[in-house]
Amino acid sequence: MTTQPEVGVPDFVLLDNLTTDKFIENLHLRFQHNKIYTYIGEVLVSVNPYKTLDIYGAQHMAQYRGREMFEVAPHVYAVADACQRVLRQQGRDTCVLISGESGAGKTEASKFIMKYIAANTTQVHREYIDRVKNVLIQSNSILETFGNAKTNRNDNSSRFGKYMDINFDYKGDPVGGHISNYLLEKSRVVGLQPGERNFHAFYQLLSTNNAYTKKFGLNSSAVYKILGNERTTAQDSKLYSLTNSAFNALGFAPAVVDDIWSIVAGVILLGELTFSETGEGQLVVGGPVRACVNALGVSEAALRSALGGRVLAAGGELVSKDHSLVDAHYTRLALAKAAYDRLFTWIVQQINKAIEVPSGQWGGTLIGVLDIYGFEIFETNSFEQFCINYCNEKLQQLFIELVLKQEQEEYAREGIQWTPVAYFNNRIICELVEAPHQGIIAIMDEACLNPTKISDQQLLEAMDKRLSGHKHYTSRQLTPIDKKLKHGVDFRITHYAGDVTYAITGFMDKNKDSLWQDLKRLLHSSDVASLRDMWPEGGTNIQKTSKRPPSAATLFRSSMSALVQGLQTKEPFYVRCIKPNSLQTPNTWDEQLVRHQVAYLGLVENVRVRRAGFASRQRYDRFLKRYKMLSQYTWPNFRGTSDRDAVMVLLRDLQVTDVQFGHTKLFIRSAKTIHGLEAARAELIPSIVVLLQKLWRGTIARRRYKKMKAALTIYNAWKRYKFRQYISSLQSELTRGRGVMKSWPSAPRGVAVALIQGAYRRWRAYLVLKPVPRDQWHQLKLKISAASALKSRRSHWGAARLWKGDYLADQTYNDKASVYRSALSSLQRSQNIGKALFSCRVHKFNRHNKLAERCLLVTTSAICKLDANTFKLLKKPTPITEVGAIRVMSSEAQLVVVSVPSARNDLVLGLVCPHDQTDLVGELIGVLANRYHMLTGSEAIVEVESGATTRCTLGGKHRALQLPASEHAPVQTPFTHAHNVITYHPASARA
Ligand SMILES: Nc1ncnc2c1ncn2[C@@H]1O[C@H](COP(=O)(O)OP(=O)(O)OP(=O)(O)O)[C@@H](O)[C@H]1O
To answer: Does the annotation place 105 within a ligand binding site?
Structure first.
């Protein structure tokens, strides 16, 4: 991973002088360098780049997997990973609360979080987990189609609040989810601001020639009232097919998808209906009535009557009342809004069915992702802004509760002393809105319930009366000097994020949100099955439905309170989104706009609170892991017992004093200290990287070496196998008198034995030596590789027994083993000869034709001749590097000639084997050849004489050395000599 240099500070907590200017300066600096993410402790501040950044790919995800937030550059993936880690490691539910104004990047952030969570599963290809991941991601396309629209602030603005719970199994893999939707901006269905579009669904439906447009006579080039001046685009038709494939992926039945698009068409057509009055005052419905009833699946008569008037239950009687033109118009719009709003909620319910945790599947832990509208302050603020801003007050309250409370609890838990920080608690504003009996919602509900029709203005008067004296509420009536407030229209709430003036107009209607029963009945009578299903209350008896449903504000308050309750039980993470400009363009920074958002999101305050007590807190183990290299007492390892002790020692060594030691965490007061630690660390890192690289390269080399060794072992085993096969084929040919013997069918048995012995010897020789072509075996006088000599001998002789090497140290071979051992160690002390590798008794033949019993000792560097009884060194050791050649016989004779060109005498030795074995030659050659190779880097020369004769140099003269002919009479001495010919008698050389 390449770590890029940081720009500014990656965590606002590290700012030296905290002011709003400094805060914005750092945010801007980072934005200019495409560093759109910065932390306030664990809160992520994200600035919308309005351009595609290459920071979201799989390789970026990998950088955040399992890493602590402070270890890696700030990123929304780090938040997602932290969420998942808390869930997996502590089994705790977590949530991410994403806030910011329209276009600040909330929905994008939530999608990145979902993407990360979906990718970060423990099992990559478990079928239903893959399905869940797919469904969670696809559900976004449907929600965006039906709930998003182009506004002047955001081309793809979510016009509803969304909270999504994702369920995880015990391993931490997603197994399902649930979406809650809040307050769709349904007024958009029938009224658009200039330059804005209606919900995407309408344009998508009209963008192609499809079954629905055909069936309901819709036309992509026609102008429809509810679509405003905006036309469909090529993008819409692309998204139309995407939406349909998402429906398919979520398992929506084709009939249901038909129903959904029919309702969308029906709403477009409702927008086209017109009303006029006949001369007799009769209301006439015009426009595409037929197409409209077709799309909604209702009868024409029912539609006409529902739009033309209404039936009321009064005193047990049913009274019908005709609509005026104005009422009819209002009813049509109400019907369109209600039908679309209900459709949206119903679609969310269907999605929930598709993603619910299957029964029997444990989906015990949750991550909640809240993507909800930010604070809104417009020219004219109405009921919707009132609800949205109330929602933000609730979330701010939650933030205060969780963040500040947690902070204080942590200090208490850790035994840290601190002075509480003053902060503005917005509970008072929440209460202004929601308090029972006294709050604005209660006052509105009371007005709505009043049997006499209360106007908006009367509502305002009632509010003024009840709320006068409240610090956060005012109106022109209450502060006549404030000319900005319109008399009888405006009231102002001082929100935690600033003053907002609301116009009371429409509050009563919007809060009642009543849909006449006739319309509910109409929709329930539809033969579009899904539409019928959406309006169950339209099926109840009109006489029984006089009870008013709860008002819109009350419903909203309940859903907010349920939301907050749910969030309270979870460990929260915050993403605060900031919009850098209103033009939706990259690289543009509108200082005023940013300043405003920083203010109302309370970000600087957030940093202050975070730093009030301590700028940073870290668990001892984590702190140690990050900074242990800064002190010789802790690097590479601390010798004490606890991490806390280690951190204390480390900080004492660094003379850092502005800290407090909690039970499990270290609390650092000033940001400067963290800076200092970070800088010192950054300075040391390059040398540590070099060290790690060195170690790692060594590991790789050792691994490669092991592999090579393993390959060689396999190769040798195979070679042995082939030769065993060859020998056994020879043996079986011999016993059956075929094959080799076939060429000499009459060969006597002695010849056969000689033959097989010859083959056996050649085989032994072969094993000693590097393989040579069979046709060159008669020239068995070769240079061999030391390693292969060692290995080949070992593979043959070593298979039967272990090489003991230092035989003299073995009591069974040498009854004076202990004398030998002490002689050896004093020898080792006096003569730098190294470790004993091989020793045995030998018969030595010298230049005076004398035979002597000696002991031979081969060490890591030299060949020594020792006295046979005292094991004292007899002559100067001969360095192994001076060995010229080693000569042996291909037979079993234990005769070895070690030629030393620098001396006038070769070593002519008959080795004395232990009782239980017949050969030491192989082992001696193995040891000598191997050491020779190690010391000189070249191969030892080993000559194997195939015949019965070899040679040696004694007293500077060449002498022949032979084995006796078989018919020779046995002699008692291992060596005899006559006429410069030395004879070695193997039989007499036994121990
Ligand atoms: N991280 C990002 N990288 C690139 N572009 C982004 C990023 N975040 C947001 N955008 C761009 O900004 C646009 C608006 O973002 P988004 O829809 O997430 O805002 P929002 O805060 O959810 O707004 P609203 O409240 O209106 O729904 C996106 O369509 C996208 O083009």
So the answer is: yes
